[in-house]
Amino acid sequence: MVKKGSNSFVRPNTFSSVAIYPRDNTKTSDETKNIVQKIVCPSEMKLKVRGVRKIGKGGLIISTETKEDLDKLKKTVQLASSGLTIDDPQKRKPRIIVLGVPASLAENEVFNCIYDQNLTDKLPTMTKEAFLTSIKLSHKSGRKDAENCNYIIEVPASIRKALIVQDRLFVNWTSCPVRDFTLVTRCYKCQQYGHAAKTCKVAAPTCGHCGEEGHTTQDCTKKADTPKCATCLRFKKPANHKTGDPECPAKKSAENRYINSIDYEGA
């Protein structure tokens, strides 16, 4: 998802979250969840829980309405004595997308232009060396034979804020729109969000058109029928829309999870 509009910011939810992991790395997230739910009673502790989701290494992310609710969870000594550890969730660096970068420019030329033409007055205490060592090209997008391409760059929160607020970046002779980049990966094998097809662990494919398991979207024999969202069908939600539709509730939920996993430092 690329946020459009002048000086628009992606803003994460203000919910507080905590990560809970088992010390025994053979335990699953479901087992961790069962342990937590046996110990923690939200009604007795007056907790306002916004959500619980499973993560890797047998862990859980629990989101609460306030930091006070989170403190109550962290102070629950029975969790630690039951073989669980409580940590703040690890957050990723933000990513920005710079649109319409001349494809003829080398990566180092683009990065030098971003610093020299856009940042020297915005972050005067940051040296070019510090800037170049703190950013990383995630990937490029666009047609291979096009004159321009898009740069998706991983940056620290301070640099992200200084660049996004400008709305456009000057790169050599080109003025390039810049936006937050929060596109979530959808697996084209199982049609779920959060991983790519090459790492998918399911055996049979799911069709992205009819939503049924057992055949690919390309091999679907129901293409004349109204499409159904495979992602929403799996979670038994209203599915009368295309898989991957911008307004799909499952897609929006995945985007929100991604946004809230990023360290925007309150930007």
From TrEMBL:
The keyword Ribonucleoprotein does not apply. Residues 186-201, 207-222 form the CCHC-type domain. The keyword Zinc applies. Keywords: Metal-binding, Zinc, Zinc-finger. Coiled coil: none annotated. One of its GO terms (molecular function) is nucleic acid binding. This is CCHC-type domain-containing protein. It comes from Mythimna separata (Oriental armyworm).
